[in-house]
Amino acid sequence: MKYKSVLVPRHGGPEVLQVIENDLRPPSAGEVRIKVLAAAVCRPDVTVRRGEALYTGTPLGQKLPFVPGYAVIGNVDAIGEGVREVTVGERVGVLTVTGGYAEYLNWRNDRLIPVPVELNPAEAVTLILNYIVAYQVMHRSAKVKSGDKVLIIGASGGIGTALLQLGQLAGLKMYAMASKNKHAILAEYGATPLDYRTQDFVELIRQSEPDGLDAIFDGMMRLDYIRRGLSLLRRGGRMVGFGEPAGLGELFRILATVLRVNLLPNGKSLALYGTSSYFLFDKRSFLEDWATLFRLLGEGKIKPVIAARFPILEAAKANALLESGQVIGNVVLLAPELL
Ligand SMILES: NC(=O)c1ccc[n+]([C@@H]2O[C@H](COP(=O)([O-])OP(=O)(O)OC[C@H]3O[C@@H](n4cnc5c(N)ncnc54)[C@H](OP(=O)(O)O)[C@@H]3O)[C@@H](O)[C@H]2O)c1
User: Fold this and answer.
1) Residue 192's domain spans which residues?
2) Most buried pick, 69, 113, 123, 231, via CB within 10 A?
């Protein structure tokens, strides 16, 4: 039997994405085969495809060709030898990093995320990357509490809208930066919208919050935003950067700032967040937080904003839309039976 996936054969725009046919193989020992129901179209899919990701050209960079797709939800379709944790038909999620734009994939049994079967896969798949980042930045890194005053930089995207929903749920007073034409949704979640193109966010927030902010969630990771954001923090305030810096030079400058800020006796702190800790040493906290997020979704306390849904094999159109800059929230790819 054959199945299809979407390949990046060379770096470039969405037009380089190519549908290819593969042989469906039985899972090896310790693996399961997953019939993909939903795959998220994530910002890192774009930067890696374009060859603009942080480690492109270094030994840590993604090799070509590859199938993109950072996060999926699917049903276990077959299990390999020695797999006891899941059975055929169970719903699982995977933080794939690459490989998600496919009708089927084989995956390591010890990297499966249990997903309640009653959840809508299109909504659930946004929790695998965008919401886990938002939740952990907010609750594990910044450790916010109700009434905290916060700023979200990059509030209209996949992670930004997740931060807005989780922030509203946590009782935060939010300032949020996005393009003017996306301000309605920021206000819908109770945030004060700021237009980064035409407004000086430092001046405006300083006027409204003379005692300073408790936390800043920064999806841009540009040194100028970091410097200006830090000036807004109160003593004891925390800035957490989760965006991808534009190149290794910018990353090193940011790391130097992290060292300097955290060593200075001014009580402010700057932390960087990355999902790589899931793979390296912190699987348990991720599984706990995904379980919390699935519960919140099941209870209707969060409602992912889905701007568009496409068939999995139309990933090129979905990527073009994400890159257009017009998207509010998430773009997802779905198996044809879910469209
Ligand atoms: N740390 C991690 O583990 C991790 C995981 C996933 C993603 N990321 C990174 O997190 C970042 C956000 O991801 P996402 O999925 O939310 O992206 P996204 O959906 O593409 O949203 C990007 C956001 O950035 C805003 N933006 C663009 N240029 C800006 C500027 N000059 N100033 C302020 N805001 C600006 C956009 O605002 P408008 O469209 O309103 O202009 C939009 O709100 C990306 O850098 C991504 O690579 C990190």
Assistant:
1) 128-276
2) 69
Q: Is the CB of 159 under 6 A from ligand 1?
A: yes
Indicate which atom in ligand 1 lies nearest the CA of residue 325. 39
- Indicate whether 260 and 145 sit together in one domain: yes
Please say which residue of 276, 291, 318 terminates a domain: 276
**Considering the domain boundaries, does residue 284 fall inside one?**
no
Q: Residue 205 is part of a domain; what is its CATH number?
A: 3.40.50.720
Residues of the chain with pLDDT under 70: none
243 CA to middle of ligand 1, Å?
A: 6
Q: Is the CB of 329 under 6 A from ligand 1?
A: no
| 218 alpha carbon – ligand 1 mean position (Å) | 9
Cα–Cα distance measured from residue 68 to residue 51, given in angstroms and rounded to the nearest whole number:
12
User: Which token pair is 278?
Assistant: 């899931």
Instruction: State the Cα–Cα distance between residues 293 and 295, nearest whole angstrom.
Output: 5
Q: Is the CB of 5 under 6 A from ligand 1?
A: no
Measure the CA–CA gap between 1 and 247, rounded to whole angstroms.
Answer: 42
Distance 81 CA to ligand 1 centre (A): 41
The CATH number covering residue 32 comes to 3.90.180.10
Handedness of CA 164, 200, 229, 274 (dihedral sign): positive
pTM of this prediction? 0.98
pLDDT tens digit string along 312-332?
999 999 999 999 999 999 999
**Ligand 1 mean position, distance from CA 29 (Å):** 38
How far is residue 124's CA from residue 281's CA, in Å, rounded to a whole number?
Answer: 24
- Kindly state whether residues 249 and 321 are assigned to the same domain: no
